[in-house]
# Entry
Amino acid sequence: MNVPDSKVLQQVMDDPRTAVYIDMADRHLEQIGYTEHGRRHALFVSQRSGYILERLGFPEKSVLLASTAGYLHDIGNFIGRASHNVFSAFVAKEILEHNGFGIEDTAVVMGAIGNHEEDNVEITNVVTAAIIIADKADVHRTRVRNRNFISFDIHDRVNYAVTQSKLEVDSGKKEIVLGLEIDTEISEVVEYFEIFLTRMLLCKKAAEYLGTKFSMFINNVKLI
# Structure
């Protein structure tokens, strides 16, 4: 099978290995103090990745490959956080092949997953660009596991301060816009950039690859 369809994507999501690996990955990250990286995050990135490419008019095949890559992008975290993008790519390979993905499509998804993190990222296709933006856009208080941590952990504090997060694509203006509402009594805006500036610059790079520009608003003020 060379072209995945929505039915095959659902098969990937329903595959017992997918569920077990994602749940184990999330439990691993919980134990070492990371924000939520479970099925909610996987679905968020999957849906937003597909949405980005669909709104920009890319082919259905690219939309579905991005949606698939988005769902599986963090699946290898149960092996270890360091190099989890590489682990995730190879764990995904087994699932993709089992569910009928062709060699080329499997390679595209693996490559996108392997390049979704900031370190040594190489954007060489639209699938990679889409999941980078979708992944980095998932900042929200619902990802914080323990509110007691927000007093001393900057990542938890910044995430918890975000009361609303919206990612929109304006196909006419060729613009991808991330809008955040931040409770500045919990975290100052400067703290967001202290930990997320590299990610936002990567989103800008990914958007440029897609032929668009990336903009970000915090509390209705344009910052990028």
In short: The chain has nine helices and four strands. The chain has one domain: 6-222.
